[in-house]
Amino acid sequence: MSDVPIKKLEPKIRQGLVVILTGNGKGKTTSALGMALRACGHRQRTIIVQFMKGDLYSGEWDGVELLAPLVTLHHTGKGFCGIEGNPYPHSEHRANAQEALLLVEDILRRDQCDLLILDEINNALQLALVDLEQVKALLALRPPHMHLVLTGRDAHPELVAMADTVSEVREIKHAYRRHIEPQPGIDF
Amino acid sequence: MSDVPIKKLEPKIRQGLVVILTGNGKGKTTSALGMALRACGHRQRTIIVQFMKGDLYSGEWDGVELLAPLVTLHHTGKGFCGIEGNPYPHSEHRANAQEALLLVEDILRRDQCDLLILDEINNALQLALVDLEQVKALLALRPPHMHLVLTGRDAHPELVAMADTVSEVREIKHAYRRHIEPQPGIDF
Question: Residue A167: how many CB atoms within 10 A of its CB?
Fold first, then answer.
């Protein structure tokens, strides 16, 4: 529609960034998914490791198949630990999250992607499914070129201090408060 | 990795939602892109109309090609009106945005998608490239099944009042404040 000349940025210094998406509003995981889509435009390789999520279908599981082989998603969890209706004890959630950490460590050591998204890891930390020292150890393994995105509520202040870019997504209003059911394409 | 049974939600009442993503932090457009990716998993059709954007390459332009024909993106603008280095007068930006509104009206009247993203329309409104009454008229044309997402800073309070779900993305910190250049895969 528009006939303007298009510029393309090329940073003099390329570097991987650590990004945290936290807060109580809608749009943290969703934003990380958008980064994966954007990274595809640069032919970057993205790996998404979802902590806790795994017992409830979400559209991104099939959506990312369209971005294969550039994007890979692992949902490693058994649902949100401690919420109503979730039948698994803390120990099982923790064992699961610990297994996911091994996967992440392997991805980092083998430098397998340009963008690594650890979805809901902030919650996993807050719920003591993983430990702060473990997450810090992962950050220390990050190859300098690799972007690392951590999502989930209640980001730990020490991780916020270590990150380059941090956004807090605040709920101003949400449909579910008016008893509107979660809708496909928006909520899952 | 996990062997849990997977549930799939199916709302008793399906309805389109109006979602606003606003605030000064990173992750509004990105979140809308993530919704497009998620919607693909439900085989929903998404159209993204970017206001103002169009003079600076961003990875999503090529990223969404991988989601064709489910996702279509139109960048209609000549860059951010009024920012340093943008050579176009307000009248040209407004003419452009007005043309984009016609495109949006056509999409709504012909019911051409399940998810319609009007990227940066909040800014376009704030900069008087489009008028509040025009945006409200578009909202009134929305088919009940269609999700409509409005992004950009400074969302108008009347639109916030009309929306179902509103998130404010707040900047806690941003790499550019430490003079780190925008990085592909994260910032564009």
Answer: 27
